[in-house]
Amino acid sequence: MSEAGLVTLDDLEAAARVLAPVAVRTPVLPADAVSDRVGAPVWIKPEMLQRGGAFKFRGAFNFLSRMDPADRARGVVAPSSGNHAQAVALAAKLFGVPATVVMPTTVTAAKRGGAERLGARVVLAGTTTADRYNRAEELMRDEGLSMVPPYDHPWIIAGQGTVGLEIADDLPDVEAVLVPVGGGGFSAGLSAAIKHRLPNARVIGVEPTGAAKLSRAREAGKPIKLDHSGGLADGLLAVEIGHLTFQHHQKYIDDVVLVDDDALVRAMRLLLDRMKLVVEPSGAITIAALMEGKFTPRGPTVAVLSGGNIEWDGLRELLDR
């Protein structure tokens, strides 16, 4: 860690070494269907092909690898809207330790089922981030578990940032990278990695209109808690950007754009129809931003697809809208 608390290139490269034997090194693929629309070469980084169906495995495994072995052996608990829960469940399974995940009562069947299949105990608690955190903290106290935070921790940020290192290695002439913004761990780590390796490349955060927590924070110069959040992108609906992640955003993110729900559905349809990729709404938000002209690329651009954990019924319902 640097003096300012930001993850360093050494932190990111250390996480990459930890993950190399266990994580999928997802490819960078040409997205001709999008390139044709925007008039510039667009590539995708399909993290729905990652173990657990999303980028979250990178941060979760890196976190568990850094834990004190005795603490890890007692078990871990993770509050999550879905993808972080599956990532922690998988990482705990690989380390041979018990995992409990606290998910909202509104969690999709795909995300709950994924965590259960990976061996996690699922506890449901309310519908807000605070509900999940409070219940996870109760379990920590009552059962001696260790918390695996979803985003606002340097080990998580460094793990997620390995996506950025891979993009820089595979497409060193990239001019812009679009990344989804939830609580900010992914966007913080990826933007740090890109700027360390390719300082002239731009990093654009993309968040849903129903959860504009980073946009509000940048206006205020500090994290601002939204009164509420909502929309299809359930993995991006945090009501407040993380405090550590915000520090990274202020240093490394060039701009933030907003995308509405209808655009998410159109992007999902395009990815399925033209690229044969199943992407959840949160994962499709970067493509939606390009399709809607929220960001106009001038040269090689990468859109990161963060995950694909959506069940068939939910996918069919969205695509029929």
Description of the structure:
- With 321 residues, the chain is of the alpha/beta class.
- The chain folds into two domains: 9-54 and 153-319, Rossmann fold, CATH 3.40.50.1100; 56-147, 3-Layer(aba) Sandwich (Rossmann fold).
- The protein is 48% helix and 14% strand.
- It contains 14 helices and ten strands.
- The model has no long low-confidence stretch (mean pLDDT 94).
Q: How do the strands and helices of this protein lay out in sequence?
A:
Elements: H1 9-19, E1 29-30, H2 32-38, E2 42-46, H3 56-66, H4 69-73, E3 76-79, H5 83-95, E4 99-103, H6 109-117, E5 121-124, H7 129-143, E6 146-147, H8 154-170, E7 176-180, H9 185-197, E8 202-208, H10 213-220, H11 243-252, E9 255-259, H12 261-275, H13 281-291, E10 301-305, H14 312-319
Parallel strand pairs: 2-10, 3-4, 3-6, 4-5, 7-8, 7-10, 8-9
Antiparallel strand pairs: 1-2
Class per helix and strand makeup: alpha/beta
Total discrete domains: 2
SSE run? HEHEHHEHEHEHEHEHEHHEHHEH
CATH topology of the largest domain: Rossmann fold
For this structure, what is the CATH class of the largest domain? Alpha Beta
Low-confidence runs (pLDDT<50, min 5 residues)?
A: none
CATH architecture descriptor name of the largest domain: 3-Layer(aba) Sandwich
Shape: globular
End-to-end separation in angstroms reads 46 Å
